[in-house]
Amino acid sequence: MEATAPAAAQPAAEPAPLQGGALALLTVGLALGTFMEVLDTSIANVAVPTISGSLGVAASQGTWVISSYSVASAIAVPLTGWLARRVGEVRLFTLSVLLFTLASAACGFAQNFESLIAFRLLQGLVSGPMVPLSQTILMRSYPLAKRGLALGLWAMTVICAPIFGPVLGGYITDNFTWPWIFYINVPIGVFSAVCAYLLLRGRETKTTRQRIDAVGLVLLVTGVSCLQMMLDLGKDRDWFNSTFIVALAVIAVVAIAFLLVWELTDDEPIVDLSLFKDRNFALGVVIISFGFMAFFGSVVIFPLWLQTVMGYTAGLAGLATAPVGLLALFLSPMIGKNMHRLNLRMVASFAFIVFAIVSFWNSTFTLDVPFGHVILPRLIQGIGVACFFVPMTTITLSSVSDERLASASGLSNFFRTLSGAIGTAISTTFWENDTIYHHAMLADTVNVYSPNTTAYTSALAGAGLTGDSVTAQLNQVVTSQAYMMATNDFFRISCAAFLVLAVLVWVTKPRKGAGPSLGH
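That's the DHA2 family efflux MFS transporter permease subunit sequence above. Prediction below.
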C-alpha cells in the first residue's frame, strides 16, 4: 500500500517519549477526554424522565436518548483501526474530541426531541475512536519502562466514569437543568483537544491509502446497530415475544455472519479479524468480555435493588455504589507501574476471586441490612476492579505489533462495551423474571391456614388496618421479599461466574515480565 501522509507526519523513527510537565499535561488531557466519553454512556440515564417531560414525549420514547448514543458508538468503535490508518492516530483523536464537543453543545441546545436524538447519534458516531486511541497514544508517549503506569492511569478513568456518571447526572438534573449534562463536556473537550494538538504535533503515525470496504461497512453498521437496539429495547418489549425484537435479532445474526465471512476473505478489511489468530488477544478479549458482562450486571442490579426494594433515593443509591471506584482510583496506577514485576495471570485471577467473594457477600444481604454494610463490599470490590482491568488489558495486547495496536484496542474496547450491554440486558431480565417466580412461590404460603400470616394480619389489625389495606400491605411484604431473594440469586450466580473466570485466566500465555509495550 502506498504511504500518502506528508513526511512530517511519518517520522522515520519512533519519536522520543515525552518528559516532565508535557507528559503530565498530556496524561491529564487524554484522561479527561476518555472520562468525558465514557461518562456520556451513563450520565443521561437518570435524566431520561426529566428530558422526556421537558420535550413532551413519553418516558418510553425518552430512552432513545440513551439508545441512539450507544448504537452509534457501538458502530464506530471497531472502525478505529481502519480510520487511524487512513487519517493518523493523533489527527483522528483530536478531530473526534472536537466533533464530540460540538455535538455535546448541540445536544444541550436541542429544542425538540427529534433534534436531540439526531445530535446524540452524531455524538455517538464521533466518540468511537476516543477511548481506544487515548489508550494507544498515551502508551506511545510514555517511556517503555513506564507504559504500565500509563495503562493504569488510562484504566482508572475508563473504570470510574460509568460508576460516577449516574451520581453526577442525578446531581446536575436535580440542581440545574438537563442541558448541563451535555454542556459540561464543552470545556473538558476543548482542553483535551488543545492538549493533544499542541503536545503531539510531529508525532503523527503513518497513514496509508486504503480503499473503502463498502460491503464490510454496510454489514457492520447493519449488524451492530440491530444487535445494540435489540439489547437496549428488548426488556421493555418483552424480548422475543415482540415481532420487532425478533426482526432485529434475525437481521443482526445474518449481517454479522456475512460480515465475519467477508472480512476474513477481503484483502483490506474494515475490521481486522485476523487479530484473533493471536492466542493472547483472542483469550484476553473473551475473558475481559465475560468479566465486564458479570461486573456491569452487578453495577446495574445493585442500585436497582437499593431504589426498588430498600427505598433509597437515586442520590443515596449513587453514594452507596460509588465506593467501588475509590480503591480502583489509587490502585490502578500502582499496579500499572509495577506491571513488569507481577505475574499477570495471578493478579487477574486474584481480581476475579475478589469479585466472587464480594458477590457471595452481597448474596447474604437481607431487607434490614444497614447502610454501612451495604457500602463495605463495594469498597473492597474496588481492589478487584484495579487488579482485573489493567493486567487483562496488558495480557490482551502483549503480543500485538505496534502498527496494529489501534485496531486491537478498538476491537477489544468494542467487545468490552458490547459485553456490558449484554450483561445489563441479561441481568435485568433475569432479576425481574426471578422476582416473579419467588413472588408466586411466596404468595402460595400467604393464606388463612398459615400461622405466620394470621399473626401478621392480627398485628396489622391492631395497628388499625383493615380490608384492602391489609391485602396491600401483605403484597408489599411479599414483593419486597421476592426482590430480595432474586437479588441474592443473581449474586450467587455472579459468584460462580467469577470463579470460572479466575481459572480461565490461566489458559492465556503472556510472556514473562510482559508489560504493555509496543512493537513486539
